[in-house]
Amino acid sequence: MILEFHPEAELELIEVSVYYEGAVPGLGERFATEIRRATDLLLDSPEIGAPIESQQRKFVLTRFPYNLIYIIVNDAVRILAVAHHKRKPGYWRNRN
Fold it and tell me: Per-domain residue ranges for the chain?
């Protein structure tokens, strides 16, 4: 399996990391580490996330209030969104 990020999900990841790093030095790196841990799990067991609709699945991060929204496409786990728990649900629906 390979890992892919939708361009908007990649931007969300960067923005959140920068925000956390600005709030507390080192927290942005801890967020990035949590994302790496989660994506490693998804690459090992892509079906681990809960189905949410159509082919999309949700993986809840352990240490931060974020979900990874993703799809499995052929040999890839494609992250569609790095979504805060309080952000409008489904804003990522049109991403592929």
Answer: 2-84
Which CATH class for the 2-84 domain? alpha beta
Nearest to 33 by CA among 48, 49, 16: 16
Pick from 85, 83, 95: nearest CA to 15: 83
Cα atoms in the 13 Å half-sphere on the side-chain side of 87:
14
Is pLDDT at 77 greater than 90 in this prediction? yes
Mean pLDDT of the region 1-21: 96
**Assigned token pair, 88:** 């409008």
Determine contact, residues 42/5, Cβ cutoff 8 Å.
no
Closest to 68 measured CA to CA, from 2, 54, 48: 48
